[in-house]
Amino acid sequence: MKEKILNLIEQGKYFEARNEICNLNVVDAAHLFEEIEQKYILLVFRTLPKDFSSEVFSYMSFELQKHVIDSMTDEEAIKILDDLYFDDAVDFIEEMPANIVKKILRNSDEDMRALINQFLDYPEDSAGSIMTIEYVDLKKEMTVKQAIQYIKEIGIDKRTINTCYVMDSSRVLEGVISLRKLILSDESTLVKDIMETGVMSINTHDDQEDVAALFRKYNFYVMPVVDMENRLVGIITVDDVLDVIDQEATEDLQKMAAVQPFETEYLKTSNWRLAFNRIPWLLILMISATLTSGIIQRYENALQSVIILAAFIPMLMDTGGNAGSQSSALIIRGLALGEIKTSDVPRVLGKEFCVSNIAGLVLAIVNFLKIYFLEGTGFIIALTVSFTLYFTVVLAKIVGGILPMVAKKLKLDPAIMAGPLITTIVDAVALVIYFNMATWLLGI
Amino acid sequence: MKEKILNLIEQGKYFEARNEICNLNVVDAAHLFEEIEQKYILLVFRTLPKDFSSEVFSYMSFELQKHVIDSMTDEEAIKILDDLYFDDAVDFIEEMPANIVKKILRNSDEDMRALINQFLDYPEDSAGSIMTIEYVDLKKEMTVKQAIQYIKEIGIDKRTINTCYVMDSSRVLEGVISLRKLILSDESTLVKDIMETGVMSINTHDDQEDVAALFRKYNFYVMPVVDMENRLVGIITVDDVLDVIDQEATEDLQKMAAVQPFETEYLKTSNWRLAFNRIPWLLILMISATLTSGIIQRYENALQSVIILAAFIPMLMDTGGNAGSQSSALIIRGLALGEIKTSDVPRVLGKEFCVSNIAGLVLAIVNFLKIYFLEGTGFIIALTVSFTLYFTVVLAKIVGGILPMVAKKLKLDPAIMAGPLITTIVDAVALVIYFNMATWLLGI
Fold it and tell me: Which CATH class name applies to B289-442?
């Protein structure tokens, strides 16, 4: 299909191509435009029906949007922008270079400019930055019939008409009513008698992560956003929340892997940026590993006389790191999903203590059997390695379980207390135990 | 509020408590029931209005649901079950012990029993297992007025009336029409003239991860599910997809942290289960670390003569592990979100080669300055450590970037190719380079 349309365009059959494109889903149509040769893009785009074209536009990449707007007349550009939902328009403006933003703003009326500036001011990752303004507002004195009539008149431009909002004269949110309820109710009923009151709402400055938590918990499809005076200023729809959830999970994962979070797609991120986002943590962790070097140097003599001790250091370090990562990953995720609260510290401590003892024992026993019986390592050495292994696993799991909760309690992001950092801590303690036990048991 | 209601119940003021509960969101009401003393639960639950109570029931934990159903008469239980949406009912039945399932099935009519069994048969994680059957079906010859009238009659029991489905006589899906479109269209228009055709649908046996990808890409709120003959059998709503997305992200994270995935919440999972899900990978990784022990033992003599070499082993291992985790985490997440395809191997290889060289150089230089100038390590040793560090970072990042893609290509889960496994591989190679370089440069 894609090939066919691209061929039609190459052959100059724009209107045939247009008809095929109009049969596509808008998302697919937008992706198709990414593959059309630059010189044809505007030609084809102009043939599309107006409503369809602005929807397609909203799903294009920022680079393509920039190209399209750049090559249009001011009038055309404004028409496209006017047809966008407001949140898409703001997202677009945020990404455009100054000359395009100017082009847009000088052609907008004053109210629109003020509104755009207000939206650009919302902090990144706040509810305000993901809300839109196209909602249906009803009055509580309307009958169901009047309300439906009103929706018919104004609904075409709204993001959703499935949920409608009832406000008083100063725009304070009074209630919510679903289109479903309207349709299923008697025509003469008053909106105020069937609307839902005491509606849960979001504040413009709430963090988008908290917004996602509410959608998750209550299975909402849309939620109202209010300002400090409880006036309705916008709505957030579940499709935007889906993006937030993906984004937050990606961010947590990046932090857990000791990468400075970034929002662009991997393949679209420059190599310098990728390197720059990874180097700081690698440096910090490398330098903090000085601790382990220091410990080994302190026990240089013990090591020199029983050199075989060195052979087990990587295994001990790796197993400690793995054991700690397991615990911290589960706790970090549990905290992110709200399944674990900071008040659960004693329970987590109890569970990790128990789990780590089981895991530590199993690993220590298997390790002892393996290195003593299979590999013929000396008894005392095997004992030292196995005991250290046991202790390392217990320590790693407890540290891995607790540190993310401590971070959360200190209002830090739990995700930075993941594997890498915990490994560094556990490594040092494990080495001290290892060498102390070795010097004591071997009498060196 | 919660305290107040619990107090009212303690004082036997059930109807006052009931009124307060009815003002709560159903999710909050369900959570409240988890805290009511067991002897009061059924008493209070029975006072709730019928519609409200079955909604509250659907948000209760399985243990509480079991308790409620167990203490009810068969008749009461069936009433509750009948009022549940079908997907909630199936989820409930799946979790209940045999005696309760029997109680339910013997009181259901034959059609319902057949349907329940059909749903229980859908593979876990398939589209069939998350769909529900309460959708609105329209006929294409209906006028908009007739369609709306029909929705008014049957809509009350439907999961959503915002999207309606048009089928032919053999239930093959012909089109989709939104309530929005119906409301905004002229009453005399025929459904077939305004319905959307060529609708994207899901097959009952599609993986839920693929379903989530479609919702993500196209911003759907609901999608139709069809069987092998393209007959409509159910719908999937976005709130269930939200759960899937959380679940898949959790599962990937667990695998990346070398934990056997499990679906229950951390705090609700037994310690044995938690231990059991962690030990296999810890064992596998521990045993594969034998490789590193073997390498160190092979170079025992070199190590013995320059014991300081041992001091840098943990730092080299940790940095290699961290560098590899960074790359693998980004690639695994990119693959999961569909931002990276298996055909991108050359691009990923190119990017990781470049990024790893930048990161490797920076780390090696900082490390050299630190150990040679600050710590007074010998020049040759510092050179050996820094060169090995550089090489380890480059290797770790390339292996970390490519292995998840290889896994995907082999139809394995990329998430298992994460930090721990890659660390083990990189450790071994890094040690070989380290000792070879040391023996060569130091002439030992």
Answer: mainly alpha
- What are the residue ranges spanned by the domains of chain A? 2-121, 136-237, 289-442
- Closest chain A residue to the Cα of B273, Cα to Cα: A355
CATH code for the domain defined by B136-237: 3.10.580.10
> Does the distance separating the beta carbons of B419 and A351 come in below 8 Å?
no
**Contact yes or no for A340 and B267 at CB 8 A:** yes
Regarding an ipTM greater than 0.95, the answer is no
Q: Is pLDDT at A188 greater than 70 in this prediction?
A: yes
Question: B289 pLDDT exceeds 80?
Answer: no
β-strand A202-203 against A163-167: which pairing, if any?
Answer: unpaired
Could you tell me if B219 and A239 are in contact, meaning their C-beta atoms sit under 8 angstroms apart? yes
pLDDT surpassing 90 at residue A14:
no
Which of the four CATH numbers 1.25.60.10, 1.10.8.60, 1.20.1070.10, 3.40.50.2000 does domain B2-121 have? 1.25.60.10
Query: What SS3 string covers B196-246?
Result: ECCCCCEECCCEHHHHHHHHHHHCCCEEEEECCCCEEEEEEEHHHHHHHHH
**What number of H helices and E strands is found in chain B?**
24, 6
Pair B152, A144: CB distance under 8 Å: no
Please count the residue pairs, one from chain A and one from chain B, whose beta carbons lie less than 8 angstroms apart: 348
What is the C-alpha separation between A339 and B316, in angstroms, rounded?
Answer: 36
Residues of B in contact with A322 (CB under 8 A): 258, 281-282, 285, 420
How many Cα atoms within 13 Å fall on the side-chain side of residue A129? 18
**Residue B366 DSSP code:** H
Q: Tokens in use for A110?
A: 């004053």
